[in-house]
Amino acid sequence: MSVDIALCADRRILPGLVVTVRSALEHTSTLLNVHVISVGLLDDDKEKLRKSWSHPKCGQIIFSELATNKIQHFRSTAYLQSKVTYARYFISELFPNLKRYIYLDSDLLVFRDLAEAFQIDLCGNLIAAVRDVGVRTKPLDPALRRRLGLHNEANYFNAGFIVIDADSWRCERLTEKLVAVSIERFDDLHAVDQDALNMLLEDRVLLINEVWNTWQYEKPNPLAGHVVHLVGTIKPWHLRYADKFFEAYYEDVIFASFQDVLSRTEYRDWQPWNFAGLGRYAEWLIQHTPTTDMVVGKLRRLTARVIARNKRD
Asked: Which residues, in sequence order, are bridge partners of residue 31?
């Protein structure tokens, strides 16, 4: 048996991508076939990734390029400016031979055997995923239910780790539906593609144990037996990670584990840009500079609220 995994990445998340797959390879009991949707990765990047994933448990490594115009019309937010996350919509189409696969965000530490998740009985559902930490640890939010039109916000799932029935996905034309809802409900998608996935798959998801998508904020220790999601706008490959996550746990457990896996890849000597000590400022500026669609969307939502208020008055 082999396990198919799929990821999406551009050059900005290369360190996360290489560590996610390498950590998965080091903890699997069977071959992993790696499928990557590339949005602007260079040939040199792909070669370094192939070498980084050279491992007895690595099967095929397949890259498929996605044109940026496929995702340019979707929403971005201050939390997630990159639109590469939407590339996941097209995995089942770009890799038509996949029957079932595990989608992985490119900011995970995989310290659990993915073969276990790959063999989960979906019980007639289209996907399996973990409830989002927000609904696992906080009171239910009726605003979430109303905004997305959900039946039960308690089942809202995080999209960082998903087992997907690709045949059913294609049969039900989920790619077309997700593209349509992402454009039509643009202003409602505060969590971008994750919201869209929840809107369409709320009644088609098998909710699985949180060990498959444990957030770093939950501080699992040891990491063994978990898939740890490095959520947040600041990642271990950013200069500002040590500034934001100053607790010993994040340095001694998360950052150290990330660097340990990275050290066994072709990116072992990789360092974030820090010319003349300006790296932290550059990271902050990039994170806080709104994209055009963020500005236009904000103005449109503000105008709509003003009009609605005037009508009430």
From this structure: 2
The CA distance from 155 to 171, in Å, is 24
Q: In the structure encoding, which two tokens stand for residue 225, read together?
A: 């037996």
Is 300 a domain residue? Answer: no
Q: Which two tokens mark 275?
A: 């010319």
pTM of the prediction?
A: 0.95
Quick check: is 49 in a domain?
yes
* Rounded distance between C-alpha atoms, residue 14 and residue 255, angstroms: 16
Q: Give residue-wise pLDDT tens across range 53-84.
A: 999 999 999 999 999 999 999 999 888 888 99
Q: Show the tokens assigned to 3.
A: 């396990």
- Among 18, 4, 10, CA closest to 98: 4
- On the 0-12 / 13-18 / 19+ scale of CB atoms within 10 A, 107 is buried
| 16: containing domain | 2-272
The DSSP element (H or E) to which 52 belongs, if any, is: helix 43-52
pLDDT, tens only, 90-127: 999 999 999 999 999 999 999 999 999 999 999 999 99
Total count of domains within the chain? 1
Write the DSSP assignment of 16-51 as a string of letters: HHHHHHHHHHTT-SSEEEEEEEESS--HHHHHHHHH
Q: What does DSSP assign to residue 266?
A: T
